[in-house]
Amino acid sequence: VLDVGGRRHKVLNSNFNIYPNTRLGKLIQARTEDEINNLCDGYKAGDIPEFFFDRNWHSFNSILDIYRTGVLHLNTDLCALVLQKDLEYWQIDELILGKNSSTFDFLMFQQEFDTSVEVAKIEELNEDFAELLQNPAVPSSIIPRLKFALKSKKE
Fold first, then answer.
1. How far apart are alpha carbons 50 and 34 in whole angstroms?
2. Does pLDDT of 67 surpass 70?
C-alpha cells in the first residue's frame, strides 16, 4: 500500500519491476529498513506493508499510469512545473519516457508559456507604472509606494 499525501493506493509490486531505477522500483527491491526509509517518508511493516510519502497526491495517478502503461497521461488540471518536480522525485526521467518524448516537449512548452505570461504581466505593469509617473495628478508622495508595489509584483 502506498500512502501519498493521505491517499492510499493498493498497487501490485510487479508494476514497479519494469522501471527498477525509479524510486518505486528501488523500493520493492529494498531489503533493509534503512534502504526503505531512504526511499519513503515512513514505513509500516506487516503482511501488507504500507509506505508513506509526504507528496501531493494530485499527480500520483499519472505517475502510476507510467508504470502501468509506459505513457504519461497529462491531466488538464495539473501544473506542468509541479508534474516535472514529481517526475524528478519519483526518479522518472526522459530515458523512461523516451518513447513518448512529446510529453517532455509539452512540459517544456508549458514552462515557456508560463514564463512568457509572467513576463507579459510585468511588461504591462511597467507600462502602467510609466503612465502613472507621467500623470501630473499623481501625488509625488505615493511614487515610492508605487515603485515598491511594482518591485513586489516582479518578484
1. 15
2. yes
pTM over cut 0.70: no
Per residue in 17-56, is it b (16+ CB within 10 Å) or e — as a string?
Answer: eebeebbbbbbbebeeeeebeebbeebeeeeeeebbbebb
Give yes or no for a contact between 16 and 67, defined as CB atoms under 8 angstroms apart.
yes
How far apart CA 85 and CA 64 sit, in angstroms, is: 15
Residue 92, burial from CB neighbour count under 10 angstroms (0-12, 13-18, 19+):
buried
| Residue 42 contacts residue 52 (beta carbons within 8 Å) | yes
Instruction: Record the cell numbers describing residue 101, joined without a space.
Output: 518524448
What is the pLDDT at residue 101? 46
CA distance 5 to 65: 18
Angle at 37 between CA 36 and CA 42, to 5 degrees: 110
Give one DSSP letter per residue of 93-127, joined into a string: -TTTTGGGHHHHHHHHHHHHHHHHHHHHHHHHHHH
